[in-house]
Amino acid sequence: MNDEEIQNLKKNIVSIGRLLWEKDLVSGLNGNISRRVDEETILLTGHGTCLGLLQQKDILLVGLDGTLKEEGHISTEKLLHTEVYKNFPDAQAVVHTHPTYTNAFFLENEVLSPRILEAKCFLGDVKSILQTTPAVTDATPVMEALKNNNITVLRNHGVVTKGIDLFDCFLLVQALEEACKIDAISRLYVGTGSKSIRVDGTVRTGLEPVPTELKKYKLFSKKQIDEIVVLVNADTQLNEMGAKTNMTMDLAVKLDETGEIFSFNFEKGKIVNVGNSEDVEFLISASQEVWRAVFNQEIDPFVATTQKKMNLRGDFAKISQWYAPCSRLFELWAQVPVE
Description:
This protein is an alpha+beta fold. The chain is 38% helix and 21% strand. The chain has helices at residues 3-22, 78-87, 100-108, 117-122, 140-146, 166-190, 222-234, 236-244, 288-295, 301-306, 316-319, 323-333, and strands spanning 32-36, 41-45, 59-63, 93-97, 111-112, 126-130, 151-155, 158-163, 196-197, 203-204, 249-255, 261-267, 270-275, 282-286, 311-313. The longest helix is centred in the middle third of the chain and has 25 residues, at 166-190. It is globular, with a radius of gyration of 22 Å.
């Protein structure tokens, strides 16, 4: 990357810092921003800088080994930022801030399960990690959390998010802060207690773990697919929602590494045919790692799609009309966990 390109990245960091400041997502001298330059180098805001008043001289070149490559004071959160880039080659940007409502929520809770539909799709269940030091000294738990969600919370500290660019990170921080605000305000109307309610009205608190006694299947094996079909067609709840919303479509799932495809023809919520065609209305593709996380209910497929961990070919707005039956479909997937 040449000097002009690096200067453009610095300008982008300055703009995002000002945007975070204007939206009350940072205050004082807290928070830091970084951007990948190449496989060995990142740009990282320096120690003691105000994100709302950044200048290009406040943004420093840092090696992924933690060494400072130009004059300045390196951020105390260099370990956090460098570890994200080392663990996630696709990560191009990292934002770490201390949003007020988010920090307040996670002082009293370990998981946020959003109730607003857009937040459910964009954020999913946001988990937190206990932090007992002013700066991250052990990044391992943070990296584990970021495997299944592009945003996580350090309790007693702040938020960490990774993305394909800085605006992607900003949107996640803003969405989480908004979800925490809504949770706080909703208590004024319905009393205390945080809960998550499904579209069908039943209560749900976080991602419900897969029962350990369930048989595990080989990923994308015929036995796994056959079991999914049996569960889907026998599920009264999904069949009723599918009939009510006229869930009639062709949906295929694809494994990136091997190119394996299974296609499902739905008619009013029931699977009437299974094939291997890629010529479908909706195609969902992902890596083995992501598919395993989906089938083992470690990540919501809607969230994986909006956070770009999965790729959806098709009209997202159209499939959203079947949000309720698709949510139930994904819950059934978790009853067919994989090895």
